[in-house]
Recover the amino acids of this structure.
């Protein structure tokens, strides 16, 4: 079974959800200052990992993200990135190269 690590951090107006496996590291970067609150991403998320933020606080002018990310549900599919009309989401993927010894050992087993 593949081990998956997830964490989340905030840098200014960017909420960074991260998923790490032995093969890759994916970062979903949500800049909530770019978000118009249209909720297209909420509607299309196949895992329902996105939900509307605190609408009353936003309406009062408080600094709160219009969309919240549940990192436990998010599978980093990129649907939000592809459909956001404001380009508030960005996905970065870093593929990890297999160690030469590990690759050779895997080939030897095959």
């Amino acid at each position: 079974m593949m081990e998956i690590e997830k964490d989340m951090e905030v840098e200014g107006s960017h909420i960074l959800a991260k998923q790490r496996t032995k093969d890759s590291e994916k970062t979903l970067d949500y800049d909530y200052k770019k978000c118009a609150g249209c909720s297209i991403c909420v509607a299309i998320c196949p895992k329902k990992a996105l939900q509307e933020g605190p609408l009353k606080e936003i309406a009062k002018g408080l600094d709160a993200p219009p969309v919240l990310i549940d990192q436990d549900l998010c599978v980093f599919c990129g649907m939000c990135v592809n459909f956001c009309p404001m380009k508030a989401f960005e996905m970065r993927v870093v593929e990890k190269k297999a160690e030469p010894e590990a690759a050779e050992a895997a080939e030897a087993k095959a």
